Amino acid sequence: MVDAQLLLAAIKNATTLSTIIIIFIGTIWGIIIGALPGLGSILAIAISLPFTYTMSPTNAIALILSIYCGSVYGGSIAAILMNTPGTPAAAATTFDGHPLAKQGKSNEALGWATSASIMGGLFSCLVLMFLGPALAQFALRFGPLETATFIIFALLCIVNSRRDVFFRGLFSTCLGLMFAAVGVDPLTGEMRFTFGCFDLSGGFALVPVVIGIFALSEVFFRLTSKKEESKYLVEYTGIKFPSFRQWKGRIKILIKSACLGCGIGILPGAGSSAAVFLSYASAKSSSPNKDKFGTGEPDGIIAPEAANNAVTGGALVPTLALGIPGDAVTAIMLVTLTIFGITPGVRLMQDNPDIVYSLFIVLIIANIVMLICSMGIARVFAFCLKIPEPLLMTLVVILCCLGAYGVQNRTFDLYITLVCGFIGYLLRYFNIPLAPLVIGLVLGEQLEITIRQTMLLSGDGFLHLLLHRPIAIIIIFTTIIMLVYPYCNRFKNLNFRKIFRG
Amino acid sequence: MKVYFDRVNLYIGLTIVIIGIALFIYSFFVKFTLVSSTPGSTGSMFLPRYILLIWIFSGIAILFKPVSEECEEVNLHNLIYSTSLIFIFILLFERVGYLISSTVFFMSHAYFSGFRKKLILLTCSILSNFLIYYIFMHLLQMPLPEAPWQ
Question: What is the pLDDT of residue A27?
Fold first, then answer.
């Protein structure tokens, strides 16, 4: 349960002037980058990493979290006004948001999106506050075997979330784990895969690799893409929030979508895209105005917007309670924690309760700040769109380089970023998912240590150890079901009569 | 317009398998000796070898995937100049300092990316880099490389 004393200390810690200013800056920055089509949350966070190095852990996390919340909301501005989702999470907002804007009601469309986003976000904060500590308490029962099996389960969940490219995702995970294996072996101290390069003896620093894989590769991808993006903007003058009367009959959709978003966010790898489409489909089937969906129905804006912002808090539940990131954004958040010497893992909440509880408060403040910022930001959106892409991309490259350099003040890290940027570009080009790579990289060392500790513990044999560990058995069983179930379904749907008749 | 690579799975799969096998062989080639005599004790190559086996297996699975993927047509020239300019920027970064290297990089990278308004380019590059320099050096107290004569 929530510790009241820690919560009070966290409120004091997270409501200092510097933290509030940082949350404002982060939210504005997140909304702007999220609203620019194609840039997204990960790039917004990656290029702001260098600014966090000299901050306190609370302020650094406040910046990252507010950018995350802001960018998820910002994606809907582009979706409504341009019919181009700024982030994948805003894709379903285009279905009803843009038609409503085209009817001359863009202010109302933005108002529905903003209020649904904020309420979805605040709902997920509450879920995180109550579920996170309970899950973390349960995670204390985890020994090396449970931790290892849970990491494997999380990695396979992320790979399995895109079944169309399952093996590519599996390769991406292996690549991430191999990146993590470079350098000194954590148990014996021997050098591995350094190929005689002294600079690699400490292994790959997480930040340069993450910046290269996500941010620099995005720059390369945009520079080489021959697609022209439309910059047609529907006219708007600001935001018009819906009245309480207009909300009547829509609260149910909002709560249902927020619950769906939060629940899906907790699952590793499911991501916000799945949450928004599921909640849109669910709202379409249960709304009293289901016939109007696709023509500018507010329920069609409320459902995806409440869901995508509810994912933010949901995704943080396994990240903070178990130290297992569910997606690339939360993986980068854990990378930020490592800069301050905080090790991600099942003891994250037990060892650093002050930071974790401050994070809860920061998330609530970020959602409130989003309301204030949204009123002004929508006005400057048209101006942001006018920034020429070559200038924007060049600035992104410079910030990427500063981010990579700032971790250890080493030029070698800049070369790592460049190489990783190139690798990231190739992976994107060949449709190999990037998220498993980063999550594999973040969890690699922990996975190796726990597996090898398990091997040491299983002196009497692995099965003997497993029989005394019911949690591990459940995790292994769930993993097997997750992998096998789709094939069972396919097997069930086979038309044997047709096959045997030839 | 889209270009279809019929054998793209084959190329990706083969590359993954070859790199995987090379790393797997390397893990045996270099001697790693520090394995304790305690039962269950493992050497430093224990997990990487298993990971590499899964790596090779995923490569083989991609290799034999019957459906070919489609790849978008890309402008490779942009990738080459961008990579080269970033490489030069990194080379100059510590030698001539942040301000000069980033200003030169900003102008050249944006120019080759298609922004040809020289006066705006010059103004933007100088202003943005001075602003970044000021924020990092004075507000965030994060040291950036300076020119040798500074």
Answer: 92
Residue B3 has pLDDT above 50, yes or no: no
Torsion of CA A352, A353, A359, A364, to 10 degrees: 180
Domain boundaries, chain B: 2-72, 76-139
CA distance linking residue A48 with residue A32, whole number of Å? 13
Q: What is the DSSP letter of B70?
A: E
Q: In this complex, is the C-beta atom of B83 within 8 Å of any C-beta atom belonging to chain A?
A: yes
Contact B46 A455 (CB under 8 A): yes
Within 8 A of B105 by CB-CB distance, chain A residues are 394, 397-398
Q: Is B103 on the interface with A (CB under 8 A)?
A: no
A166 contacts: CB under 8 Å, gap ≥ 6: A159, A160
**Chain A residues with beta carbon closer than 8 angstroms to that of B142:** 50, 53-54, 406
Asked if B51 and A170 come within 8 Å (Cβ–Cβ), the reply is no
pLDDT confidence tier of residue B140, bands split at 50, 70 and 90: confident
Residues of A in contact with B94 (CB under 8 A): 411
Residue ranges covered by each domain of chain A: 4-457, 464-502
The whole-number pLDDT of residue B25 equals: 92
- What's residue B36's pLDDT? 59
Report, as an integer, the average pLDDT of A65-89. 84
In terms of CA atoms, which chain A residue is nearest residue B122?
Answer: A391
Report the pLDDT averaged over residues A114-134: 89
